[in-house]
Design a protein that fits this description.
This protein has helices at residues 26-37, 49-55, 60-65, 80-87, 110-133, and strands at 17-21, 41-46, 66-70, 95-99, 140-145. By secondary structure, the chain is α/β, with parallel strands linked by helices. The chain has a five-stranded parallel beta sheet, sandwiched between helices. Residues 1-5 have low confidence and may be disordered.
């Protein structure tokens, strides 16, 4: 039987840190609310900080525990490494990364292939590059990636 792994059951470190992408999506907003209640320190990469702050305006737990970092993982010329170095203070703590960026329609339309590839593959590649560039990759204890059927292309 596969083991069920729970972040909640982990041995406590100085601070429990989670880097989340896709936190303004359906799953993401519920996830960071739950993580904030479990006292995780959350760093969330978002394309629009104002939108994210507005989304969680009435959620004091999320507002207290979350630092929104503006950036677009689909952009090859990202400046996120600098932002993460400046804002993501981890001081050697273990980091959990939860990547919820993904999506797109299941289609055979060749015109949509590039955007689907960018959403599902390029963003993931850029996230790993950023973790390597900032030196945070060595502190990543767990990397969770939730994608979309669209990443496979039409079946």
């Amino acid at each position: 039987y596969p083991q069920v792994y729970s972040l909640q059951g982990e041995k406590e470190m100085t601070e429990k840190i989670v880097l989340v992408t896709g936190c303004t999506g359906f799953i993401g907003r519920h996830l960071i609310t739950k993580l904030a209640k479990q006292n995780y320190r959350i760093y969330a990469i978002v394309r629009d900080v104002k939108k994210a702050e507005q989304m969680f305006l009435n959620n004091n737990e999320v507002r207290k525990k979350t630092t929104f970092i503006q950036g677009d993982l689909a952009n090859q010329e990202h400046t996120l490494s600098k932002e993460i170095k400046e804002k993501m203070i981890t001081s050697g703590s273990e980091i959990y990364v939860i990547n919820l960026v993904g999506g797109g329609p299941l289609t055979t339309n060749k015109k949509l292939y590039h955007s689907i590839y960018t959403i599902n593959i390029t963003t993931l590649e850029n996230l790993f590059k950023i973790l390597e560039e900032t030196g945070k990759i060595k502190d990543v204890k767990m990397f969770v990636h939730l994608s979309s059927l669209a990443a496979m292309g039409a079946l």
